[in-house]
Specification:
Oligomer: single chain
Radius of gyration: 25 Å
Number of helices: 15
Structural class: alpha+beta
Number of strands: 11
Strand content: 5-15%
Distance between the termini: 52 Å
Largest sheet: 4 strands, mixed
Length: 419
Amino acid sequence: MRMTLWNETKSIPISHSMIWEAYKKVQANKGSAGVDDVSMEEYDANRRKHLYKLWNRMASGSYFPPSVKEVEILKKDGNIRKLGIPTISDRVAQMAIKMYIEPRFEEIFSPNSYGYRPNKNAHQALQKVRENCWRTNWVIDLDIVGFFDNISHDKLMLAVEKHVPEFWIRLYITRWLTAPVLKKTGELITKQGKGTPQGGVISPLLANLFLHYGFDKWLEQMDKTVNYSRYADDVIVHCRSKQHAEQTLKLINQRMNNIDLELHPKKTKIVYCKDYRRKEKYPETKFDFLGYSFQPRTAKSKRSGKLFLGFDCAISISSRKRIADKLGELEVEKMTFKSVVGIAQKLNPMIRGWFHYYGKFRISSLHIVFRGLNKRLTRWARRRYKRYKTSIKRAYNWLKRVQEQYPYLFYHWQLGFVY
């Protein structure tokens, strides 16, 4: 794509290379169409026209983002999470600004913040929580009500202005914050001074900036004995004692109110990290974080080989249920492939992803999930082959033979998750 022909004598220093690099990242992330119903394939087929138009408008200050398409996804607790999906051009525009300002934000962000940051990930956050739980007895599991929907624009822009002197960047951020939302009903909703769409490219960066001043920096200055890990709006705080946890939670509650946020009264809780050393009686000894459950678990000593009660994490029950529900939704036993090889090709990318994320800690906890998949494969064989219809034992033996002959066919078989 020859973009060097573009004239860059514009009032705003947005170069064609910025737009092109932003586009490549958006393209790699894929994603669905926005309100204009233009898919990534359609956009890519005419990308020169789309990107030139975007650059021309952004570089002259005349770019106004279109409305954001609202989609609903089911949360693990059964409630609905509303995502805002920008158009592809708008995602490219947001990505260009994000890439421009993110390095200066990274210089100030806390090492205890892990979500949506370069060279940071959920496994690092989980590992830090594990280590803190082993050292500290009490945990505050924070749940912020509708965080992305309730971020105050005024307070956020105060933080933006502190680090972004460029008026044109602040102008575009304001336009993104105030862009209307197109609901499923066709109704167009205008923002009322709060909220940034969960699904926007620049939203996680702005959310991290908001909580950097709204929570991270405040907590680090307020109590230097407290350890914490934050992944976007999921926060775990570690305290020395029950009294310390209760007092800290009270102060955090006040702080949330001061920045126009609210802690969920039922989901926010204090947890005791009970194990063989910590034997106090307390009703809450478990919390979930990033798809894992932290609770008392039997472990084996590396030195003596003896079992003891530790406090550690493994895939949560709700995460296991989501995987089982996905396999049920796919109706593995009813798949029409002529052989089991087709099923393996269909499922392996998903299985690999589940193992890479949920198998990081206590991989053995995934056995129950993939025993279920193996049973579905047996049921598939009974439907597919007449000779197995009347005998579950023969179908079971068939699967066992396939596992022995082709141990690398399914990704979970490679790791020993067989019958």
